[in-house]
Amino acid sequence: GTWGGRSEVGSVGPVSTVYVSDAGEVSLANALSPVATPMEKPKDATEPIDIAAKIELRGGKVQVLFADGRQAGVSALDARIDFASSGRLDANLSAVVDGGGRIQGDAQLRDWMRNGEFDIAAAQGEFHLSADEAIDLEIVDSLAQLGAGLGGTATLKIDGTVAGGKLTGDISSVARGLRAAATGDRLVEPIDVNLTGKVNLEGDDLSTS
After folding, report:
1. Taking a C-beta distance cutoff of 8 angstroms, is the pair 166, 198 a contact?
2. In this structure, are residues 141 and 153 in contact, taking their beta carbons and an 8 Å threshold?
3. Of 130, 131, 113, the residue nearest 122 (C-alpha)
4. 59 vs 203, which has greater pLDDT?
5. Angle at 89 between CA 132 and CA 172, to 5 degrees
6. What residues does 148 pair with on adjacent strands?
7. Beta-bridge partner residues of 117
8. What is the C-alpha separation between 126 and 62, in angstroms, rounded?
9. What is the DSSP letter of 143?
């Protein structure tokens, strides 16, 4: 018959340090690596396998150290991921970015896995990401290693859906003192911008409006 089980992993107050070298290589020190006890398959069990797991993190912190001495990170990191091999995924995340500003996100997906194999074309669900408080874009530029010379602050809101192998999202942002590196590393003069738009991703095709 069908076999399976549920595994839960939790941690409170973990701290991870990430070092980024001049070559862009990343190494981890004191990273959280919880190990769940593996489940044994009953001798008389047959397919399909149905496994569920929940991972929960509270009060975490991630610090990124760059070779040139720069530091950036997030704190008050709370995350919860609840998924099943039958194709269910529920997740939420909340964290405070250095310099102020909280990022929150959640996602609910269904049918992303069938018969033990990924089936992205059949996946459906929705996701949300928001930063209602202004976030320091210089910190974001460092954390994401964009190298865009970003500066200023910005809020962000993304509401999206996934269906039929296509991702669609509505984006809005309010940026203040926005600047970025231009040709020859010359910085673009800071500007204030209110942005709204839509993004569509299907396979390798990305379009915005």
Report:
1. no
2. no
3. 113
4. 59
5. 25
6. none
7. 114
8. 27
9. H
Q: What is the rounded CA–CA span in Å between residue 24 and residue 8?
A: 34
| Amino acid letter, residue 130 | S
Chain segment 61-120, per-residue pLDDT in tens: 888 777 777 777 888 889 999 988 778 899 999 999 887 789 999 999 999 887 777 887
d(C-alpha 45, C-alpha 196), whole Å: 52
Which residue has tokens 């320091």? 136
DSSP assignment of 155-199: EEEEEEEEETTEEEEEEEEEEEEEE-B-GGGPBPPPEEEEEEEEE
pTM of the model: 0.70
Place of tokens 């997906």: 109
Q: Say if residues 164 and 121 touch (Cβ distance below 8 Å).
A: yes
Give the model's confidence band at 3: pLDDT under 50 very low, under 70 low, under 90 confident, else very high. very low
Reading the block at residue 28, the tokens are 């981890």
Nearest in space to 60 (alpha carbons), one of 79, 80, 33: 79
Closest listed residue to residue 160, CA positions, set 130, 135, 133: 130
3-state class (DSSP) for residue 100: coil
pLDDT for 38 equals: 44
Question: CA 161, CA 107: separation in Å to the nearest integer?
Answer: 9
How would residue 137 be classed by pLDDT, with cut points 50, 70 and 90?
confident
Type of residue numbered 113: M
Residue 204 main-chain phi, psi, to 5 deg: -95, 0
